[in-house]
Model the fold of this input.
Amino acid sequence: MAAEPEPSTSKGVTEIRQLSIIIKWAGNEYPLTELTDQDTVAVLRHEIFKLTQVRPERQKLINLRYKGKVAPDDTKLCVLDLKHNFKLMMVGSTEAAIESAMQLPDDIAEVIDDFDVAEEEDLVEKSPVYLAKVQRRVREYKITEINPPREGKRLLVLDIDYTLFDHRSPAENASELMRPYLHEFLESCYKYYDIVIWSATGMRWIEEKMKLLGVSNNPNYKIMFYLDSTAMISVYTIERGVLDVKPLGLIWGQYPQYSSKNTVMLDDIQRNFLMNPRSGIRVRPFRQAHISRHTDKELLKLTKYLIDLARYCDDFDTVNHRKWQHYDPRKRRTQ
Done:
């Protein structure tokens, strides 16, 4: 199949155009402004799902045509000649058990968090389409600062679910599901790092979890701000289709004192690092808290690594975080 033509400037560089599409479904209209003309129909379906909860496989896009036929999922939107505020008619139903459907992102994460993204990293990280999405997040996402950044500190970005907290197991109080050494870890790292919490959930749940865990009001350390799922962007991967990821460029664009040279992100899901693969540390998921809390020492080990990194490494880009457990600061220490 011949490659689809792409719009380009006079210099031969692909020009990325922001799209504004209105989804007409079930008697309502839903504005969709997250897309560019370099995204695919698959990404469009993913964004529609986030708006309507109609799964992509159940969406019938009536007037989205390409060469007289229904546009395939791998079709780039730039070839469809969509006008500004194009009204896309959709037919489709949500799942009968809507509450269960709303939990699908957590279930999917458990299945895909182990897949190898190495071959996809360069394609995603350097894509002009996704870099443009990050720049839009920088312009439009409002960060609510809880505590100001401190001069000379590195940046530590932390996930919550299965990284700091087992959000699935039953318990009478949150402390039973808290990962061992959490407060000691945060207190020790705070001496060297400004700390940000980034979870793929809503802001209300982030604030509630941090309160229950005693993080939000701990006197020994402070959190700079929280980021929620709306700060993430959607990317298309050959192996796994459309995924939501956490682009650190959102933070770097609003706080230029931070960059890949002094930032580390901890998450139990490797795909969240796709936009910044060399800045991520994939931690072992903390599950079955009632059993594993007696033996889990992940945060204890990470404390030593992060402190050594902050004390002896001036440029984090020179470190392979995938081998963090074998890091030897004596080989990098300058006299």
Notes: Confidence is low (pLDDT under 50) at residues 1-5, 96-114. The radius of gyration is 21 Å.
